[in-house]
Amino acid sequence: MDPNTRLQTRRLGYGASLAQTKVAQAPAVTLASPALTVMTDLAQVKAATTIAGASLAQAEQVMINQGVRMLFVVSEMPSIEGLITSTDLHGDRQMRLVHERGVRYDELTVGDVMTPLGRIDAIDYIDMQHASVANVVVTLQAFGRNHLLVVDEGARRVRGVISRAQVERQLGIPIAITDVATSFAEIGQLLS
Q1: What is the DSSP letter of 119?
Q2: What percent of the chain has pLDDT over 90?
Q3: Please, which residues have CB within 8 angstroms of residue 163's CB and are 6 or more apart in sequence?
Q4: Which end of the chain is least crowded, N or C, by CB within 10 Å?
Q5: Level-2 CATH architecture, domain 35-184
Q6: Mean pLDDT confidence for 38-61
């Protein structure tokens, strides 16, 4: 067609309707499915982020707006300082800090309650490529975590996130998680 040719138009008649998106029916996820089917791939989905100086209310609003339960805490994109989850926003740690510091809850920041980078469990992407959803479930349960990160490039880049809630949705069954302490500090927190 000649680039200068105008396209024909028409008038809509009564009863015209909108096209509806057709959600591709993904195959059902089972424990035998490849582990990558339950990973949120950050090469395809933008990571939800906040900064350490944000208030807990601001972080919670970002989670609500983006429909997530975990945010990456960043200093400068794409450098990660840690994670904050919806559990971190309303757990014992905040109340302890309020009492210890003599401050109000609304004075706490993300940096006060986030999980620092050095305490975050991660799985290598290469291992995920050869694992099943059952391996993911066992790992979540072994660490007592609601989220695990997936790293590549020698653990220099976070490639994906595994969320217990997402795995449960895709499997259609609940996954029992028990808090597991991995350090003496965490043992103290669990006992208090």
Answers
A1: G
A2: 56
A3: 40, 69, 70, 146, 147
A4: N
A5: Roll (3.10)
A6: 95
How many Cβ atoms from other residues are within 10 Å of residue 137's Cβ? Answer: 22
Please give the Cα distance from 63 to 73 (Å, whole number).
12
What would the pLDDT profile of 91-100 be if each residue is shown by its tens digit?
888 888 888 9
Rounded (10°) CA dihedral 32, 34, 38, 44 = -170
Q: 34-48 in b/e burial notation, b at 16+ Cβ within 10 A?
A: bbbebbbebeeeebb
The residues spanned by each domain of the chain are 35-184
Those residues whose C-beta lies under 8 Å from the C-beta of residue 89, and which sit 6 or more positions away, are 56, 59, 60, 63, 113
Instruction: Please count the other Cβ atoms lying within 10 Å of the Cβ belonging to residue 70.
Output: 21
Selection from 58, 49, 46 nearest residue 89 by Cα = 58
**pTM of the full structure:** 0.74
Tokens of 156: 């220099």
Query: Quick check: 10 pLDDT over 60?
Result: yes
